């Protein structure tokens, strides 16, 4: 019974964290019919600041890393992010009743990375005396952005296909909706969706932040403004998402079990994928045992920071009670509890 | 002449404090016809953040207090808040020319508590070597919220009655305005107003913050975001209220003397009420002499923090030049100057 | 070749500073067709906070200065600001293709002061062991506000004249646009424009901040809120201005050489004006050699802080790629590099 108590305690602690507490608070307000609202311009400001910050932090971390040593693990991290999303699509969209948007947003969030879970992993490795590379923090944007972009692209492509199919009977001019004449192929549509995604406010802000972090020297304004405001703005975003989630909770009733099972099992499967990639990097380039553990921790984690604002802005049709609920409520506790497992695996297969 | 100079100095210092200085600045801008404006969505954000912060701070304080020892003084504090508002209603609304909304808002603000006046009281007790309970900070939300809710409820009930009366002659369907058919009694209307008040954005945000502070662990985001932004956002709110107050200052010309007398006398009367309740708690539960002094200080003080945003959002018809001017310009200086009086009373009646 | 490398390095460092990096980032986003936007209410909030902060900081600095010793140098500083703008008007508006609004905004920005260039000057004087008055920081608002007000007044007066001329043929009722009957003279129109400028949101906020800094005690809220938020809000403003600048960059193609020459030469000419005024103050009142150097540094510098938000709000027709580009991209590096020149001049003409 001990592990169940441990899991219950971790879930309770997780619920009391501001992220989930504000989400639940927003749901309670909506349930009670409160007239509280966060005005649209304020919401846009919050998303802009959050994504600029996430991008800038990632850009600064990559700029300060040793790019040569970073190359192979970074490719591996991006690969892990993409694989997790593709796997999530395979598993979740096959379940009857799971909407395409909700499924892809959930897979994207589980592919993206939680910085705090990663920090917990580093702390445990320090405690266990297992060394890891200094550039690990710079790996996280590769997995994070690869997973989010893949999920958004796939979701929007399938929405486009669906729209095309529903328009077809009325004259076959489906591709017109993308602003092109007839006769465009599959590749063209995909390129258009990619360009359109990159121009969306959320991804633009994320990439702008990344570029500024990489090429400029925004450290001072990052430390004095974006970093201190971050947690607070995130709490407001969670409030908005909670209010919205409540009004759409009924949609999930029939498929709740799918998300519960996914939230509990996915972190373990994803961690194995990450660990496998870390192991391959170990044999290829001498990537450390601790590095492989942290690759597993990143893959097992699901994003509580970069993911929700990006997905909320880029896939507004997706239901936050599905993806944020599954990820923050179940995925994150399981990911944290599974860290010792990856350390044990590394000790067995690589040696400390 | 010395006390008059002391009062004048305190008033001058008070006017130079950001709270009142921004209020006056807003009035000057409006008087000069400036086109400066604070956009409505920004105003809503400010109120949301301020009230979340006030609620969260109160919730955290109550959560950390010893609830058993807190019970009797907390009831006493709530009682003091309600009594002060009822007394204010009796006194202010009887004056010809004082509008119902302005009178109730002023009474509410004088019933609510100033955290900085309370801090001044604690500092003076420390200086005088008089002990008090550690949970005193957790008493303040009870008096504060009880007073504000009572004032808002009473003001809205009487507005409802007035609206009903003015509709009556045209067919007696007054209660229809509350969305109910004929035949609803007094209690129903009161319940509806209470529910409606709780659903209002201001009270929702205050109660959400309270709930988060009590049940979750928002300390980190509170300290890194809500607390540092607080004074600054309040200064912006004061600017808005000052601009608004100017355009309505003329309404007050005929009744200014009422507010001046109330602002000077009320803190002393309210302090006596608070001291009496503290004395009763002393005899009932051994509440300390210092505790009784601080109960008097809280009752004598009028809110400069939680009150203005709550009242501005919940009673938009009330004129801020009446309630903020009376409270911050007169009530607070008198409350601060009267602290030694309560210490002397406690020494005489309870013993240090 | 050394000085060219030094200039190139300074320009590169300057481009990587958040101010210019966010401006360029905004231009890139606009060039790529991003749908990112900063909502209008948020933009208004940013300008309000920035200008309140600039005004308040200046007011606090003046309040803390010794007003008697300040008088002559302050008059000199204001004179320098006005002379620079008049000179800029003479030079820039004579160039074919330079729009009136762009030319006046650029002249205003070069008349206004960069606090960071001033700080660099103080650091170099400290290094050279050359003494200067403690109140120098309080001189800067005099030059800054005099230059900005002069530029805005002149730009709006000429816009008014142009509008009048274009209306004339249709019946000679030009002055009606200012809300007056026929027969108003030149002085009346100027007074109306002055009053109208003072009532504009930007100048109102600046003057309100100045008044609060001078007369109230906003130090606590200034240090806890306005100061920490400043650089971050400025980065957002630069983003907005960059996006806007891109869409209007084509306007500048034909006159780019004018701005390049002005941006490189003006700081040296302006520094000489400032040094001359400092020298006069030295002979009149014993103003120190270091003070004369810093007067030259202030005059040579162009505003990166107070100027852009003020001009953007007060002269929305002016093209930010002209004035911010010229000032931050060229004027500021030249101003910083020319500091040793003023120190050498002071040593030669005054003696350390």
From TrEMBL, chains A, B, C:
One Pfam match: Sbt_1
Record's keyword terms, sorted: Membrane, Transmembrane, Transmembrane helix
InterPro entries listed in its UniProt record: Sbt_1 (IPR010293)
Transcription among keywords: no
Transmembrane domains' residue ranges: 20-38, 45-62, 68-92, 104-123, 135-155, 258-281, 330-350
Protein name stated in the entry: Sodium-dependent bicarbonate transport family permease
Organism: Seohaeicola saemankumensis
Native organism taxonomy: Bacteria, Pseudomonadati, Pseudomonadota, Alphaproteobacteria, Rhodobacterales
